[in-house]
Amino acid sequence: MSHTLEQAIAVGATKLAPTSDSAKLDAQVLLLHILQKPRSYLFTWPDNLLSSDEQRQYDEFCERRLNGEPVAHIIGQREFWSLALEVNATTLIPRPDTETLVEQALALTVPEQAKVLDLGTGTGAIALALGSEMPTWQITAVDKVADAVALATRNQQRLAIDNVQVKQSNWFSALKNEQFNLIVTNPPYIEHDDKHLKEGDVRFEPLSALVADEAGMADIKQIITQSRDYLLPSGYLLIEHGFEQGEAVRHLFKQMAYINIKTVKDLGNNDRVTLAQWP
After folding, report:
1. CB 276 within 8 A of CB 236
2. 87 and 73 Cβ atoms separated by less than 8 Å
3. Where are the strands (E) in 52-192, listed by range?
4. Which element (helix H / strand E) includes 5?
5. 129, 187, 223, 257: which could form a disulfide with 81 (CB 3.0–4.6 Å)?
6. How far out from the chain centre does Cα 171 lie?
7. What tens digit of pLDDT does each residue of 13-68 get?
8. What is the DSSP string of 25-77?
9. Strand pairing partners for 119?
10. Three-state secondary-structure class, residue 100
């Protein structure tokens, strides 16, 4: 039996409540993807009936979400910095807290034609957000996973952000003798035994993009160490990290002789991004 849009959202929200903290929003996003309509459509035409095919697909989507599958994976996209990005299970799903990193990068004083590097780009979210705002920047986005490189490239091409180039590289391995005014990264920073790995959307994301050795600090340490050879004088390194890692990241920066070190809080008032300058 087909529901009206209003009924479908109410039924979906009730069904998804045990799984999701945003059950009604999830139901709306799933339904709008099927209808290929803007959000205003739900409020303008609440009494419209779903077709039998739309109802069947909606029920299927709700069932998948009830089993814990992320909404972004079900509909194949996630919005980040007002950009509609294709997503899949080969990379992390872009999160709002990462927009803190983008905001901090855009606030820095760098040359008009800055050379920028995004390490571990995944979907390309950070690089593409920066490229969309700063068309004169020359941005290189790298990832070691071939599927992630292909995904980021598709996002770059579909969004036509032409100042972003995507290439395969294990951190700096394919970047011989290149130097940058700005390096940004959201690397793996979760401990192997972190309880959150068994909760929510992260259960469906690749562990290689989430987990790092040395209590989650191994990749961060490598990036801070190696970036010194790839930063131009007065260049900046910005790193997203766990909410309890700010002090440890600042200590690493200081050990490695960086200056102007500071940690910035995210939308939830947690330590999230630490940045520093190479003298």
Report:
1. yes
2. yes
3. 77-80, 83-86, 115-119, 138-143, 164-168, 180-185
4. helix 5-16
5. 129
6. 17
7. 999 998 888 899 999 999 999 999 888 888 888 899 999 999 999 999 999 999 88
8. HHHHHHHHHHHT--THHHHH-TTPBPPHHHHHHHHHHHHHHHTT--HHHHHTE
9. 142, 185
10. helix
Single-letter amino acid, residue 143: D
The C-alpha atoms of residue 257 and residue 14 are separated, in whole angstroms, by 54
Question: Which pLDDT tens digit goes with each residue over 55-73?
Answer: 999 999 999 999 888 888 8
AA letter at 133: E
Take residue 172 and report the two structure tokens written for it: 């700096």
Give the bridge partners for 263, in sequence order. Answer: 274
Tokens 């995904």 locate to 151
What is the distance between the alpha carbons of residues 275 and 258, in angstroms, rounded to a whole number? 10
pTM of the model: 0.83
261-277 burial string, b = 16+ CB within 10 Å, else e? bebbebeeeebbbbbbb
